[in-house]
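Suppose a colleague, Dr. K., hands you the sequence of a protein chain of 789 amino acids and asks what its three-dimensional shape might be. Before reaching for any lab equipment, you can write down a predicted structure in token form. Begin with the sequence itself:
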Amino acid sequence: MKKLTTLLFLFCTHVMFGQKVEGIVFDQETNAPLWGASVSVKGSQKGNVTDSKGRYQLAASSNSTISVSFVGYEPVEVPVEKSKQIGLKKSNFLQDEVVVRATRADENSAMAYSNVSATELGKSNLGQDMPMLLNFTPSVVTTSDAGAGVGYTGIRIRGSDATRVNVTVNGIPMNDSESQGTFWVNMPDFASSVNSVQIQRGVGTSTNGAGAFGGSVNMQTNTFEPKAYGEANASGGSFGTLKTTLKFGSGLLGGKFTLDGRLSRIVSDGFIDRASSNLISAYFSAGYFGAKSFARFNYFTGNEKTYQSWYGTPESRVNGSVAEMKAFIDRNYLSESDANNLLTSGRRYNYYIYDNQTDNYAQDHFQLITNHRLAEAWNLDLNAHYTYGRGYFEEFKPNADLQSYGLGAKPIVDVVRRKWLDNDFYGSTFALNYAGSQKFKFTFGGAWNRYIGRHYGLLVAPVAFAGHEWYRSRSQKTDLNLYAKANWDLATAWNAYLDIQFRTVGYRMLGTADKFLTLDSDNTYSFFNPKFGLTHQISEKSKVYGSVSAGSKEPSRQDFVDNATAVPRPEYLQDYEFGYERSGLRYGLQLNGYFMNYQDQLVLTGAVNSTGDAIRTNVEKSYRLGLEAVLNYQFSKRLIWSGNVTLSQNRIQNFQEKMFDYDLNEEVVINHGNTDIAYSPSVIYGSTLTYTLGAFEASLLRKFVGKQYLDNTSDDARSLKAYSTHDIRLKYTMKKGPAFTLLLNNVLNEMYSSNGYTYSYRYGGATTTENFYYPQAGFNFLLGASIRF
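The predicted structure, expressed as tokens, is then:
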């Protein structure tokens, strides 16, 4: 920590004096200045956007090249000596980037965000899921149930879990409407079809779909390719991991059309025993490009079969204590086979031993994306989408009472069952954009989406009852949101941002769930989410910004299923952000402070329902207070370092733990006062040191995640230990030939767990706590080769 503080001090106080470059970017045909054009020094971390008068300022050396791009115009590169006046020519084709512009932040949005390009994603895209590829972005913690980044993976931003992270593809929601999480396993190898990703931290800009309480991940798929191409990628490595990808594109056909496609397969045994994955996916896109209109039809599908590793590993097995494992076996009445599995499996232990304990699910996504230039200053995005999902997970349940399956008084038998989900999700999004004034930009947009989900359970065995259905429910959710966003150039060097969203959600559930739980609820929520920010350009090298935003979120399906006695309330958030940015000839610095103040946040308190399932409960007050620092430094043309650190305090005020006392046969309440929010480390650090020599690139990547509590009691006995990983990435690209990548993960063989859970109860006058962890792989590797032609 001392070294990190020293680095922060050095980079914050170090000033590099380079040549001051300033100029104007304008439309070649009309000579009108272009507001919001991206201007950067080629091959460096430095960049800026033009103001309302088309002006920009940068620090660059005399031999630098200035790159300029703007949606709807052809990008240009000019040497510094010709950068005083840069004219852009309108493209004959509208660009794909227009479809995500309405939901993305920019330099004047007064909030924290990170952009990740397809090039950056591709450096590590050897089979692991998207969360793992975003692991080194600020305030991010990733998890993997199978321990090696393939299969069920997750992402947390600022300590907020997947249900609080909004995910969109081309502005279309990807979060599951009921759980509100994103299941990346249903989108295998999707990174191979992504052109760019923007991660917004905090409430962010108004977007479509689930409320963003920790952040949002905004993805744009492949972009316009004017020339025909083909690409083949193959990679493999530890734990039987193998990825094969074929991509192709037609280039421009008849001056107006393009076709693009991808086929992928990923298989892996997983680090955890039997945690195998068999993932198949495809992506096809047909585009029409006109002078004033653009349309793209996207179809992508994912089909996954994964062996379950959801249960986690008991603490005693992770620690290797035979005495504690035997005590766990005794108090949980494990069978002989389960006990032997626990005692002999090591860190790779998997609770499930039934040979078809698998999750099987498929999704088909259809997107129609269009943009129309209505007038010189006006354009309209109008999009439609449909997703069909279906699948089940199969479970073995020993010594089951068939009465619990509605079969009357029958003997105790072993049962194999499948829990099915069959759903439809469809709707439309739109955005009307105005950019005709030198002092004002405006967007009016929104979305209407409907989800229909059918949940039911079928027995597979005993054979005599195969096909018996013991529960069925139907859910319908309608989500309507409208937003208006505006940027004003108030005065010299000042810009104001205003974003107002209205969102209404109708959620209806009817039927039965497992364990004969009755579902009969009909709830409607209305949310108003205003956002306001100010940005001040202090000088050509630095700026400061501040914003205040409101967010809101409805309860999930499970909150209603688990809690039959009390209706959960929606959650609310006020997000205050303040930032400072500075760039020089060799460095870039971003500092962002935040205060996220929650009302009625839903958290686990230890309470359980009548069937023993955990219940999330609204807590009146909680908050996150933090500082994020992002630093980039170019030691030379060959050596670049980039790093980020998040320091935070995450607290629940007056937390009350609920624990069931079997001696009293009742729930008891334990007052803990102010406690830490679960899964919210106070320190997150990531860094990448990259050395480039011609066609060779070597990177050293480090990630540190501080201690995380498994529940909200701040009890050290219920926590994940801090961990630090070191990876090495080597890449060599041959001229007019293949590129080779070697990824060495966790080279110091750190034994760590990135996720877990806990529960406690009282029995026999004592409190028993059961901790479960998700161990991650030690040293492992992936080797890949790719060729484009």
